[in-house]
Amino acid sequence: MRLVFVILLLVAFSPSREQNLISGGKLRPEQAIMDIRHYTVSLDVNIEKQTIAGMGTVDFIFSQPSNIIVLDLVHLMNVEKVWVNKKPAAFKHDDDLLTITPTATLPAGKVKVEVQYSGKPGVAARPPWDGGFTWTKDSTGNPWVAVTSEGEGGKIFFPCKDHPSDEPNEGADLIVTVPKGLVVAGPGLLQKVTTKKDKSTYHWKTNYTINNYSIIFNIGKFKVVTRQYTSISGKIIPMQFYVLEEHTSHAEHQLEMLEKTVKMDEKYFGEYPWANEKIAICETPHLGMEHQTMNAYGNKFRYTQVGGSDFDWLMHHEFGHEWWGNKITAKDWGHYWIQEGICSFADALYNREYEGEESYLKRMERTARATRNEKPVVLGDSNVTEDDAYHPDIYGKGAFFMHTLRYVLGDDVFFPTLKKFATSPQYTYDNQVTTTDVEKFFSKESGKDLKPLFDFYLRTIQKLEIDIKQLDDSKYHVKILNFDMPLPMEIVTDAGSQKVTLDKKGTTITSKTIPQIDPKVYYLKKIILE
After folding, report:
1. Which of 57, 204, 465, 487 is placed for a possible disulfide with 186 were both Cys, Cβ 3.0 to 4.6 Å?
2. What is the pTM of this model?
3. Contacts with 440 (C-beta within 8 Å, 6 or more apart), sequence order
4. Distance (Å, rounded) from C-alpha 73 to C-alpha 153?
5. What is the pLDDT of residues 433-485, one digit of tens each?
6. Which among 220, 247, 267 is the end of a domain?
7. pLDDT (tens digit, 9 = 90+) per residue, 180-232?
8. What is the pLDDT of residue 9?
9. Residue 327 falls within a domain, yes or no?
10. Does the residue 384 lie in any domain?
11. How many CA atoms within 13 Å lie on the side-chain side of 184?
């Protein structure tokens, strides 16, 4: 998601197109009884005027009768007509809410709402962190349009229920009309391209559950470069790069790197989640974003070296969200770390996979030093907005927590448990998750009560306080001061390294030198030497 590595620079909003939108928070009672099943968004994009016009269709199920429907849609859109179950309906549109009053009370069951609208969508002030539309041109003067909406929600350009707890179980259709000669990249599979006179219409469709900020499109003078990928189960999946024509020469190498990323992620988290559709990236004018089956890529082919080979950290991170964020989705923004923290842990696993354990450990040590501990990773279990939840430690401290958990459980338990969680129907696709879900799953699989560890790391800003008290010239008593759960701990003395179980009672160590505690940095800690 909105990568933490280059954030926190303030950029002024465009006063004429300001959105000031917030995603998540307290779910309105009128929306709590709605179960979104499908979105259809059909739009004509006028690039010259920077406007959109068309129809948004929302299919959902009411769990109880209601005489009102509330959808989210930015105030910048002009709603022209609304139909409920094919009948015209009265509506009010203000404060980014579309409130619809059907002609009669609707019973529990299926409902179809169609909204005809148009307008000039908000311009992204600092994409992808502050989302909206980006209207620009490539270096040869061709139009280049991108949409980003993680922090604001899909409501920036289509009517929806904007809350992470509910996704369209039956997928979405995205139908976008653009000037002839341009290409539209979107989620799922391309159904058809229809060209009439000077316009082309691209129909994209996904049958998978999808978060509403992944229902986006990119427009450009793209060349589609394709190769085949064989998944861990043997399934053949098309792998594509929607690359600007001017950068076509980079495409094959980029896809080679992407294949290494997919193979690593499949090893640790199971088969690619959208195997019936595609693996794809699209070149964008912003840095990047994890849009399901069509990840945005804007790192401009700038590579580092990992294991002696080119590595694109941006592409790798965003692609990891196909599992952590898209397949496994937090039920509330309060649990954002599940998506960003575990995905960032996967970034470190790439070092482990292609450079070895020492490279991985050095990366995690750097992560420990960068942890701010200014506020808890989990700010609350519900009603948290994306703006409140989004801070640097959901990345780094979230990743480091997984590193700690790995050490506490050991590889023979940790890695199979992680893959089992990522492939469990109970926690994937249609089912959003919470921190408690993750804790209970790892506790059950490991046979340990891990709640104290989860709470300490994720719900507080404390570090382990480890006390070393010298008893005489060659004896030291080592104990944990502020944490009740026994923890495995490496201690290095003049005689070498030993692994002990450390708790509040502590243990006595014989050494002619001051013991080194946790030298490989598996814990966030403070050493107190008496």
Report:
1. 204
2. 0.94
3. none
4. 9
5. 999 999 999 999 999 999 999 999 999 999 999 999 999 999 999 999 999 99
6. 220
7. 999 999 999 999 999 999 999 999 999 999 999 999 999 999 999 999 999 99
8. 32
9. no
10. yes
11. 33
d(CA 343, CA 290) in angstroms, rounded, equals: 11
Cα gap 518→515, rounded to integer Å:
10
- If you search the block for the tokens 């009102």, which residue do you land on? 68
Note the pLDDT tens digit of each residue in 143-162: 999 999 999 999 999 999 99
Entry field: residues in the chain: 530
DSSP code, position 385: B
pLDDT digits (tens, 9 = 90+) for 384-411: 999 999 999 999 999 999 999 999 999 9
Q: How far, in Å, CA of 319 to CA of 265, rounded? A: 9
Confidence band, pLDDT 50/70/90 cuts, at residue 17: very low
Take residue 77 and report the two structure tokens written for it.
Answer: 């859109």
Strand partners, 109: 62
Check if the beta carbon of residue 434 is closer than 8 Å to that of residue 494: no
Same domain, 419 and 484: no
Q: Does residue 328 lie within any of the structural domains?
A: no
Q: What is the signed CA dihedral for 494, 496, 501, 503, rounded to 10 degrees?
A: 20
* Residues 442 and 422 sit within 8 Å (Cβ to Cβ): no
Residue 370, classified by CB atoms within 10 Å of its CB into exposed (0-12), middle (13-18) or buried (19+), is: middle
Say which residue the tokens 């998750």 belong to: 433
Residue 15 lies in a domain: yes
Are 216 and 226 within one domain? Answer: no
How far is CA 94 from each of CA 37, 71, 303, rounded to the nearest angstrom?
25, 11, 46
Helices (H), ranges, 211-298: 251-269
Q: 238 and 225 in contact (C-beta within 8 Å)?
A: no
- Indicate which CATH number applies to the domain containing 300: 3.30.2010.30
Q: Are residues 93 and 204 in the same domain?
A: yes
Indicate whether 204 and 225 sit together in one domain.
no
Query: Which of these, 219, 107, 103, 200, lies nearest to 157 by C-alpha position?
Result: 219
Q: Write down which residue in 190, 220, 250 finishes a domain.
A: 220
C-beta atoms surrounding 505 within 10 Å: 9
Residue with the two structure tokens 């950068």: 247
If one counts the domains in the chain, the total is: 4
What CATH number corresponds to the domain at position 489?
2.60.40.1910
| 253, 302 Cβ separation under 8 angstroms | no
CATH number of residue 5's parent domain? 2.60.40.1730
Task: Give how far Cα 235 sits from Cα of 4, 228, 232, 272, Å.
Answer: 34, 10, 7, 10
Can you read off the two tokens belonging to residue 66? Answer: 């209601």
